[in-house]
Design goal:
Elements: H1 2-16, E1 23-32, E2 46-51, E3 54-58, H2 62-69, E4 75-82, H3 128-133, E5 143-149, E6 186-192, E7 198-199, H4 208-217, E8 233-239, H5 249-261, E9 264-269, H6 281-293, E10 296-300, E11 323-329, E12 348-351, E13 355-359, E14 363-367, H7 370-387, H8 393-402, E15 405-406, H9 408-411, E16 418-419, H10 422-429
Parallel strand pairs: 5-8, 5-9, 6-8, 9-10, 10-11, 11-12
Antiparallel strand pairs: 1-3, 1-4, 2-3, 6-7, 13-14, 15-16
């Protein structure tokens, strides 16, 4: 009888155990050979051309489909849509919000005193306040910055949201014929309809994407909250990162292509993974949008305290001239303890420790991570571009690196040897 009880217990334990797939269960990535069409197959429920020869196909039986298409001569390669890996994103930190008793002649945003990133470079910031106090150039063009993240609180009173003027909200029609229905502020690649199409609810349910957005472009001089670095930018919200990370290559690629086609000139990526599963679709997408649409992708280096020249992190470690990779610094001027680095793989540094920015529900808090450093540098990039909109992404990247505030500490760990600085970047850009 004891044996019978034990056997039953083991059976029940086995029944309750399941292995979670590290890839999407309903889609495959296919790259066709140049000039070749996507093969027709009865198991393909729907297909979408992402860009050039890259496709995502949706199916209820991806294993059989993958096996049967693997030898098709039209196909260069076929693979799963791999997930990145679940991990905790930066969280809100205990924050004591101070309000300045003194009148700031440059900004009237009440929490600016908490934004150490606005200090001059001699005090470990990015010279934001001094730049605007002594402005030498004027914004010439509004810049759209796409935040590919956990979504954005598009109702936040301190955030300037991009609005798709060609779309009528809530009518269930793709009014502008861009392939997406009701994409008023962006798209949500995490929630798809029955045919695999991205949907439109971009609301942030984590805070991460909203925090990133505030650092880039929170409205300046509105007597509310904080100030963003970019004075003439709009935030395009793209919900692609789950609240515990685990984003997929298809979602990231579609986010990049959507952003570029709809006018974004800078894309911020405060996410990453340690394995690339051999696919180059995301790298090729970064190259494509840089060359075809003039988009610069700004990416976080990662928070593993590693040299990514030896231990790669993606998308940061992709070899693309249109990709700017950012390490994190602290208010004391050195590197943040958590930051990744690399003399070849990391381009520039930016403030990332205890950064005050917006979160869901018209609130504000500190967060830390290269997730915070990346948007600070993206904000500098956006402000340079709004003043000099004819710059190509490779030129903008070069300006940010060459104009960075350099110290021996930075020189030993990252390619440019410096921390991004708005005043120096604008001066450098004026000479192009």
């Amino acid at each position: 009888m004891k044996h019978l009880i034990v056997i039953c217990f083991l059976f029940l334990s086995t029944k309750s155990f399941s292995i979670e797939l590290n890839y999407s269960a309903d889609r495959l990535v296919i790259k066709t050979n140049p000039g070749m069409p996507l093969p027709v197959h009865p198991l393909i429920k729907n297909a979408k051309n992402l860009f050039k020869d890259y496709w995502v196909v949706f199916s209820n039986d991806i294993e059989t489909l993958k096996t049967e298409l693997s030898q098709n001569k039209s196909i260069s390669y076929i693979s799963y849509d791999h997930k990145s890996q679940k991990r905790e994103l930066p969280q809100a930190e205990p924050t004591n919000l101070l309000k300045s008793d003194e009148e700031n002649l440059t900004f009237n945003d009440p929490y600016l005193i908490n934004q150490w990133t606005f200090r001059n470079f001699e005090n470990h910031g990015m010279s934001i306040t001094r730049t605007f106090a002594n402005r030498r150039s004027s914004p010439r063009q509004e810049i759209i910055v796409a935040v590919v993240d956990t979504g954005v609180d598009f109702r936040h009173e301190d955030l300037p949201m991009w609005t798709n003027e060609g779309e009528i909200a809530g009518n269930g029609i793709d009014d502008d014929n861009n392939g997406y229905i009701d994409d008023i502020h962006g798209i949500n690649t995490l929630v798809r309809d029955a045919d695999g199409n991205a949907t439109m609810n971009v609301m942030d349910t984590h805070n991460h994407g909203t925090h990133v957005s505030g650092s880039i472009a929170a409205i300046q001089n509105n007597n509310i909250g904080i100030a963003g670095i970019a004075s003439n930018a709009k935030i395009m919200a793209i919900r692609t990162v789950p609240n515990r990370s685990d984003e997929t290559d298809v979602d990231v690629t579609e986010a990049f292509i959507y952003a570029a086609k709809n006018g974004a000139k800078i894309i911020n990526c405060s996410f990453g993974k340690s394995n690339n599963e051999r696919g180059m679709m995301v790298r090729d997408a970064i190259n494509h949008i840089g060359e075809e649409y003039g988009v610069l992708v700004v990416a976080a280096a990662g928070n593993s305290m590693r040299n990514i020249d030896m231990y790669p992190a993606y998308p940061a470690s992709f070899d693309s001239e249109n990709l700017l990779v950012v390490a994190s610094t602290s208010s004391q001027g050195g590197f943040s303890y958590f930051t990744n680095y690399g003399l070849e793989g990391v381009d520039v540094a930016g403030p990332g420790s205890s950064i005050l920015s917006s979160i869901v529900g018209n609130r504000y808090t500190n967060m830390s991570g290269t997730s915070m450093a990346s948007p600070n540098v993206a904000g500098v990039a956006a402000e340079v571009l709004t003043n000099y909109p004819d710059l190509r992404p490779t030129e903008l990247k070069e300006i940010l690196m060459e104009s960075s505030y350099q110290t021996p500490v930075y020189a030993s760990k990252i390619k440019s040897g410096g921390r991004a600085d708005l005043e120096r970047a604008l001066e450098h850009a004026s000479k192009y």
